[in-house]
Amino acid sequence: MMRLERTRGIGVLALWACSCGVMAQPLLLSGQVTSMESQSLVVPKPGDAWRYQIQWMLPEGEMAQAGQPVVIFDKSQLDNQIEQLEANVERVTAQEQSRGVELEVQVLQARFNLKKAALDKDKAALDAAVPAEFIAAKTYADNQFRLMRSEHELAKMEQALFETESRLQASLKQLTLDRDKADIALTQARDGIDELTLFARFSGPVLYGFDHRANRKYDVGDSIQIGRTVATIPSTDRLLVKAWVNEVDVDRLELNQSVTLQLDAALQQTLPGHIAGIGRQAERRRGWGVGNWFEVEVQFDAGLEQAMVPGMSVLIRTGEGAQ
């Protein structure tokens, strides 16, 4: 029994020693300098097209200044659309004016007809007011009939004027809506011309977006679907390193763990840092096989990020040698 307990104790110590040996081994991660704040330059949707061609881009890696144009898309298609919309605005405006004049003439004619019917009715009323004992019976009956007919005609002209004025108001309202709609479409198209130029909100290097279908970065001449990110501008004020660790090795990392960093641009120099964040959910990475990966954030020690530029590749070392 004593021999069994001694053997079990030796096995536990061996496992513990083995575990310590694995934990002591340095872990190497590859990452990239990135920014806590970045601007995504997205293909806009100023018109009816669903793709726009890149006409010009600031060279990749060049520092963009705040307010500087970074990407310009081809505007010829929108220019043609604006010409059509301008012609449509002129047509709708001319139609509104001509139709308005036509309806005004109809209203004036209806008012004239009403006034004439009122005069005819007044004349018929005077004739009908003559007593029957002073005129012939047939003449008296004719006068009464003409009065009834003039009253009916007057009511008919009043209804005609009301309908004409209502039609005038409805037509003018519809024509005004059509003109406003055409003006809005033209204004949006003109504003869209400005939207086809993307400006930098803050200073930072220009990083081109990646076209996964073509397996290359976007470039001048590419036609890109609306909503796609054609480039990004990371801010140079608050930098960190983003890396990915395999699910097999994620338990070897912990928050605030010291690490050393080596920039590919200066392998002879090592910089101290620490792990600032570890992702809680693993995910697959395109082209990285079937394994799952956790995102890792590494921060430089105070002041050291001033010499960094977003997009730089970094080698991260944990364990022995990390300060």
Automatic annotation (TrEMBL):
It comes from the Bacteria. Gene3D superfamilies: 2.40.30.170. InterPro entries: UPF0194_transport. It is found in: Cell envelope. Keywords: Coiled coil. PANTHER family: BLL5650 PROTEIN (PTHR32347:SF23), EFFLUX SYSTEM COMPONENT YKNX-RELATED (PTHR32347). This is HlyD family efflux transporter periplasmic adaptor subunit. It comes from Ferrimonas pelagia. The lineage of its organism: Bacteria, Pseudomonadati, Pseudomonadota, Gammaproteobacteria, Alteromonadales.
